[in-house]
Design a protein that fits this description.
The chain has eleven helices and twelve strands. The chain is an alpha/beta fold and about 280 residues long. The protein folds into two domains: about 130 residues, Aldehyde Oxidoreductase, domain 3 (Alpha-Beta Complex), CATH 3.90.1170.20; about 140 residues, Aldolase class I (TIM Barrel, Alpha-Beta Barrel). The strands form three sheets. The protein has a six-stranded parallel sheet. Strands 3-5-1-12 form a four-stranded antiparallel sheet, with helices on one face. Helix 6 packs across helix 7. The longest helix is centred in the middle third of the chain and has 32 residues.
Length: about 280
């Protein structure tokens, strides 16, 4: 299970699609050097210090190729590991170890990269009440993995997808004609348990969102002084979210405005990968 989603229903299909992308018509290189079933093992080594994330996805990638594959590790997602750490050993059919290597590592390096990157932001915000959120700016077909990695790094998930919440952005407001009308229309169709968030760019828009009864008011691309004034105007009548132009260098100034949440797309799209290797493959004797 990963982030509350079962592998069988939600995750296996993603991983299988990634494997099919890499093994479309077979693995010619492996088929050339491995004749028949040969058992062996290979070491997983971290080539950079990081927050580890994606251990279960890494394991599951090999299991989908061969359920008999075993991944031995003492580490868990969220562990801080040092460069050069022997993270674990994968045991199984050598052909499976070779064919699944790249896909399994791709998940591990991407997820560990996001968790490590998020942890840097989360550590800055730790002394404050402002909570760190991700966005929907994720890699296609990687969203469940990337959003899970954010939580491992100490962030929280914003809405998962378009079905998960009402967010009225500038173009929704333009389509409706005004913030007031957009909120009214959303209340007519959204379940009463759903919060309605409205994107604002000026103090005038903030006031309109307050008057319309928005549950969450996004303060989009505001400078620090304007954002502080907006939070004071809202005065607890709605939750507040800062979005746009969020950098790690600016986080403290954002938190000091008193905003409730700060959402940052760079947690996912700006995270560098963490390098891992599968090394020292040997047949079992």
């Amino acid at each position: 299970m990963i982030n509350g989603l079962t592998f069988k229903v939600d995750i296996d299909d993603y991983i299988m699609d990634a494997l099919k992308e890499d093994i479309t018509w077979g693995d010619i290189s492996t088929e050339a050097v491995v004749r028949g079933k040969v058992s062996g093992h290979v070491q997983l080594i971290a080539k950079e210090s990081c927050i580890l994330c994606g251990i279960d996805v890494f394991r599951r990638t090999f299991e989908l190729l061969d359920p008999g594959t075993v991944f031995e590790t003492e580490f868990r997602d969220g562990d801080a590991i040092e460069k050069g750490t022997l993270v674990g050993i994968v045991r199984g059919d050598i052909a499976v170890l070779l064919s699944g290597e790249r896909t399994a590592l791709n998940y591990l390096q991407r997820m560990s990269g996001i968790a490590t990157h998020t942890k840097k932001y989360a550590d800055v915000l730790a002394p404050y009440n402002t909570q760190l959120l991700d966005t929907r700016k994720t890699t296609p077909n990687m969203r469940p993995f990337e959003k899970y990695a954010v939580t491992v790094g100490g962030g929280r998930n914003h809405r998962y997808n378009l079905s998960d919440g009402v967010m009225l952005k500038d173009n929704h407001i333009g389509a409706a004609g005004s913030i007031k009308k957009a909120v009214e229309m959303a209340r007519e169709v959204a379940p009463f348990v759903r919060k309605i968030e409205v994107e604002t760019e000026t103090l005038e828009m903030v006031q309109e969102a307050i008057d319309a009864g928005a549950d969450i008011i996004m303060l989009d691309n505001m400078d620090d002084e304007t954002m502080k004034k907006a939070v004071e105007m809202i005065a607890g009548r709605a939750e507040t979210e800062c979005s746009g132009n969020v950098t790690i260098e600016r986080l403290i100034r954002i938190a000091e405005t008193g905003v409730d949440y700060v959402s940052c797309g760079a947690l996912t799209y700006g995270a560098p990968i963490i390098d891992f290797s599968l090394k020292n493959l040997q047949p079992d004797v």
